[in-house]
Amino acid sequence: YLIDLCGSKAVLRAGYKTRHPDKIASQLLGKTRVAGAIQVAMEKRSERTQITQDMVLKELWTLVQGNISDILQWDETGPSLLPSANKDPGRYKCVKRLLVELVDKVKLLELLMKHLGMFPSSNHGTMEWKQFMQQ
User: Fold this and answer.
1) pLDDT tens digit string along 81-90?
2) Rg for the chain (alpha carbons), in Å?
3) Is residue 4 helix, strand or coil?
4) If DSSP codes are grouped into helix, strand and coil, which group holds residue 74?
């Protein structure tokens, strides 16, 4: 389950032979013992990697707030770095390549929303962004 936080995939990886892994995942995740084991494993992983949820959320938020106009300007010759961009290397995080391909903010927001529990819990994080926006 810790690989991708997808209960259905975890059920299949665990060797269950079923056409409805989502139902088995829901049942398993609802068991106190299973939920407790997952929590302990997540805490151990956080200690081992020295990566906390706060660190991940702060980095995601930095990327979401990134604005290409904070570091680049355009003129008749094309894009160029603003002089102020050199003062804050964190601003470069919103740029994926020098070809000026921005990070996928929708995907980042989806990750934040999943973490913050903004998707219905009955779907265990399987609801797609489009489904969520239609609600």
Assistant:
1) 777 655 666 6
2) 20
3) coil
4) strand
